[in-house]
């Protein structure tokens, strides 16, 4: 008997609903960030939408172009996909005249893997093909171990991992923070090429301190914004006036924290970033799984069901879009 993806997810969702509503749970706490964790700070107010980061990401990761115009003259990805690990999306309202204004304005948002402190994708993967490095905290992908089950696709609260449906031997596609460049002494290409420091690389604890400094700036106050790598000061800083930052560092608390932090002047939900609880989905689902194992009640799909149920409340996954096309 075969089971298609829709039936599979229905079963998984049923398991998740059962778990979310009925099972007693011993709390598994959120995992904590490694002391030397590496990540990114993306500051929407500094972003000029140049997409240099999108091109650089494609180049260093050997990703093909993606076309969204009939002429097919240049790489124009509309979203992350099996061919694109990083995109810059734009928010617009009214006459779109004023940058970083929620009303009659526009703003940019970087979309890529956030390298969760307690990642659902790692928790859901049955064969440890998604791995969180214990030192850097970077969440990377081992194609040789992957069995193509797409549990990680369903589990991610940000809808990040994408399955390469159009390939004969599909892989999962997601940003790995240019981990392959670290042995060469290089860092994330998106941060390296960013002209304004809107995407900044480095130790998360230092990026977090920089984010706190920016949020405390007076709007209009001139200041220096580091570019490139905040720890090596490999590039001269960018001088600009501080925007009217929201008093929120996105990624500080969401699902237990992420190693990509984000700043904005426009509410994050308007920029496509979901409102999420502080408890990680991995902690919630593993707690449920542990309880069911303890009661000898575990169902094969129950663990994925829990992750899928809670992730689907926030994100429309590409699997759903794929189903709708059929
Ligand atoms: S954003 Fe999604 S893919 Fe990236 S680490 Fe978190 S759960 Fe995994
Ligand atoms: S598809 Fe995702 S969850 Fe499944 S084995 Fe590959 S990395 Fe792991
Ligand atoms: S390179 Fe920097 S300024 Fe340009 S789109 Fe990317 S994040 Fe924004």
TL;DR of this structure?
By secondary structure, the protein is an alpha+beta fold. Helices cover 27% and strands 15% of the residues.
Give an overview in words.
With 326 residues, the chain is an alpha+beta fold. The chain contains nine helices and twelve strands. It is globular. Mean pLDDT is 88; it is low at 1-24 and 321-326.
Describe how the helices and strands are arranged.
Blueprint: H1 5-22, E1 38-43, H2 52-60, E2 87-92, E3 98-99, E4 105-111, H3 120-124, E5 130-132, E6 139-141, H4 151-155, E7 162-163, E8 172-173, H5 189-193, E9 199-203, H6 204-216, E10 222-225, E11 238-241, E12 260-263, H7 281-294, H8 302-312, H9 318-325
Parallel strand pairs: 1-12, 3-4
Antiparallel strand pairs: 1-9, 2-4, 5-6, 7-8, 10-11
Task: Please name the defining characteristics of this protein.
326 residues; 12 strands; 27% helix; single chain; binds iron/sulfur cluster; three-stranded mixed β-sheet; disordered N terminus; 15% strand; globular; alpha+beta; Alpha-Beta Plaits
**What proportion strand?**
5-15%
Radius of gyration: 20 Å
Runs in which pLDDT lies below 50 for 5 or more consecutive residues are 1-24, 321-326
Estimated structural class: alpha+beta
What portion of residues is helical?
25-40%
What is the terminal-to-terminal distance? 21 Å
Q: For the report, how would you describe the main beta sheet?
A: 3 strands, mixed
E-strand count:
12
Order of helices and strands: HEHEEEHEEHEEHEHEEEHHH
The helix count comes to 9
Would you give the CATH topology of the domain at 38-116 and 177-271?
Answer: Alpha-Beta Plaits
* Distinct small-molecule ligands in the complex: iron/sulfur cluster
Q: What is the average of the pLDDT values? A: 88
The CATH architecture classification of the domain at 38-116 and 177-271 is: 2-Layer Sandwich
